[in-house]
From TrEMBL:
Recorded GO CC terms: cytosol
Name under which the protein is recorded: Nucleoside hydrolase
Listed GO MF terms: purine nucleosidase activity
InterPro entries documented for this protein: Inosine/uridine_hydrolase_dom, IUNH, Ribo_hydro-like
SUPFAM superfamilies recorded: Nucleoside hydrolase
Signal peptide from the UniProt entry: 1-20
All copies of domain Inosine/uridine-preferring nucleoside hydrolase, residue ranges: 37-334
Keyword annotations from UniProtKB, A to Z: Glycosidase, Hydrolase, Signal
GO terms, biological process: purine nucleoside catabolic process
Organism: Neobittarella massiliensis
Gene3D superfamilies documented for this protein: Ribonucleoside hydrolase-like
Length: 355
């Protein structure tokens, strides 16, 4: 019921004549000025939908997309992301990154996202070409151009950003922050100051498992890091409610018709194939980009360290007296579920308003 209400509220705002010259309202945001972002992705379903949120925020400036192996091979991820960039009208460069991890064994997560990473949906063939530079060079040069304002959103393995840190010692000085979905681990208790906590990383948390060493490279670099993983993302999912006859909220979310409906709904069919009561999704990549659009949406716990040893996440919470000096934080909950719900449901309605 709350999600249906959020959908109605979003629609009312969009069609109330907000904005000049017929332009419709953008998503609500806590950002007050232009915020340059770079998205690093392995080209899966969650990332496909997450990329669609970029246009909804008038404060975001997408400077580049970099591609990683992960849900599928690097080559397939590149095709998915180049096609998505053209579909959504992005003019930024799209660059291929690492084909293999800096450490650990590659775990392709094809069971979740289909053989091609997009539920076997084929997007229109793009006209644009890949940037000739490797992903880590694009990261470095873009960060340097932005003079310390660039926010990097990593929606796949952390290999590319780890390579940038290793290849360019001053890279860390030019990055405002990295938000990553490779922050998985079922850590049950984050309340004890200064205590070392551990939690298992499950096989489906492939963003982290595909390159466990890259997490340590990132968290020890001094770059501000926000971890968004399985500790918080299951706090919001779409699918069937237990109530008899309840409408599937995946269908409610994607109901508004727009230029992209054909592709949104085609990709959505992949989840239906899993069966009625398994037809659910949490979309951590959407959570990552929404947390950049509005940093107040989630609550966080500051950390002293965060590393992954084999399949175990090890974190040390920052002592209370030192929390202001922490450069690592892990998302622990959604601070305002109604606001998050409204922002999440906004994207398809936004594109309907552009028709």
């Amino acid at each position: 019921m709350k999600r249906l209400l959020a959908l109605c509220v979003c629609a009312a705002l969009l069609f109330s004549g907000c904005g000049a010259a017929g332009k419709q309202a953008h998503i609500s945001t806590a950002l007050t000025q232009r915020t340059p972002i770079l998205i690093d992705s392995d080209g899966n379903i969650s990332d496909f939908y997450a990329l669609a949120y970029v246009n909804t925020c008038d404060k975001l400036d997408l400077r580049a997309i970099t591609c990683s192996y992960g849900a599928v091979s690097l080559e397939q991820a590149g095709i998915n992301l180049l096609s998505s960039a053209e579909l959504y009208g992005f003019s930024c460069p799209v660059a291929l990154g690492a084909r293999y991890p800096t450490s650990s064994f590659v775990i392709y997560n094809s069971q979740t996202d289909g053989k091609n990473g997009l539920g076997d949906v084929i997007l229109p063939t793009p006209k644009k070409q890949f940037d000739s530079r490797p992903a880590w060079q694009v990261m470095y040069e873009t960060a340097k151009e932005e003079g310390g304002k660039l926010q990097i959103i990593c929606m796949g393995p952390l290999t590319n950003v780890a390579r940038a840190i290793t290849e360019y010692p001053d890279f860390k000085d030019y990055v405002a922050g990295v938000t990553t979905t490779a922050g998985g681990g079922s850590v049950e208790d984050l309340a004890s100051d200064g205590t070392r906590l551990t939690g298992p990383v499950m096989p489906e948390q492939s963003d982290l498992l595909n390159d466990t060493g890259a997490l340590e490279t990132l968290t020890t670099s001094g770059i501000p890091v926000t971890l968004i993983g399985t500790y918080v993302s299951p706090g919001y999912f779409l699918g069937y409610s237990p109530e008899k006859g309840a409408e599937n909220t995946l269908d409610v979310w994607l109901a508004p018709e727009s230029t992209y409906s054909e592709y949104f709904l085609a990709v959505r069919e992949h989840f239906k194939a899993s069966g009625k009561f398994q037809d659910i999704a949490a979309f951590p990549s959407v959570m990552a980009i929404l947390s950049v659009i509005d940093p107040t949406l989630l609550t966080y716990s500051p950390l002293k360290s965060a590393v992954c040893r084999e399949s175990t996440l090890e974190i040390m919470q920052m002592p209370m007296q030192d929390r202001d000096s922490s450069t690592i934080q892990i998302a622990t909950s959604i601070s305002d579920l109604d606001q998050y719900d409204e922002m999440f449901m906004f994207m398809p309605i936004y594109y309907r308003a552009q028709e």
